[in-house]
């Protein structure tokens, strides 16, 4: 849990020194800087902003760097400094480290904000990252395999872009990379598949709370991105000519996806169908309808569904931590809720905050008004309230 947060020259936050609690409510007008506080925490944890990937876009005007520093409750300190040219300096306990994953492991951060509300309609990357966030924090061996896979994939794609015809030397090199990709892919799929299986019941529980009328109709599926019954290098060799023409690798772990499905909640017989004719077999059972949830639910229901997806990850992560002495991450998750009241209705907000208040996690939430305060004060014993005005943060 973050005990103190310091921010320098990030957007309109010139100098911020914030003493934080288990629950922190940040009130401010649009453009005041309240979302930038969440952005700073996310940047420290993930090494990138959730609003823009180019550091020059969030480094304060006329400044060369933006810095975020945090002291967490075990006495450790974390820091990140971003320069306009994207150079990054990372520190753990005043010592320079060279992998963002070290800070990410120390500060697990889950974001629920308006920018994630189109996840169901977007490409597979955001949904895949949703699963990989869990796998990273729960399986020690996942990240090294993922890094090695990405490195080989980058080399392979670079070669595919250069030429449509490979020399014998290039072909031998590519097949060597493919063998490595295949080995890493099998392990990455193994980790993802195991965590996905555990995630299913937690997702069902969250749906039962946030979308109870769809509790029996919504389900998750995981697609590996390739046929896992056949070694990936064999499939890559079979598709090499097409990959050369397109200039990129079309199958593999990088194409994995998580889908949310909607099913009709009961089967019908032909006799239930008003269009049935006397010749119809009235005892024939019609198939259950199955559809992508994004094509069935309203926008409000999609927001609740995406909230359920993210919220369901926390109890899984925390229950695994309690039950496993060799669990990878034993640090308090930080939940970032941006513009809460604008995205969810009162009932959903109550379910979300009640659930979070019962979990050992830290919450930072932003809101345009203080309407959410009575509920927060009923759930947390000592929440902290901050007002943000033109980049200045005041503890109330």
Blueprint of the fold:
Layout: E1 2-10, E2 13-19, E3 23-28, H1 34-46, H2 55-58, E4 65-72, E5 77-83, E6 88-92, E7 95-97, H3 100-106, E8 109-112, H4 124-138, H5 142-162, H6 168-210, E9 218-223, H7 232-238, H8 240-246, E10 257-263, E11 290-292, H9 299-311, H10 313-323, E12 334-337, H11 340-343, H12 346-357, E13 362-367, H13 373-379, E14 384-389, E15 392-395
Parallel strand pairs: 3-13, 3-14, 8-12, 12-13
Antiparallel strand pairs: 1-2, 1-4, 4-5, 5-6, 6-7, 9-10, 10-11, 14-15
Helix pairs in contact: 4-6, 5-6, 6-7, 6-9
Observed structural traits:
Rossmann fold; alpha/beta; 396 residues; Glutathione S-transferase Yfyf (Class Pi), Chain A, domain 2; six-stranded mixed beta sheet; 13 helices
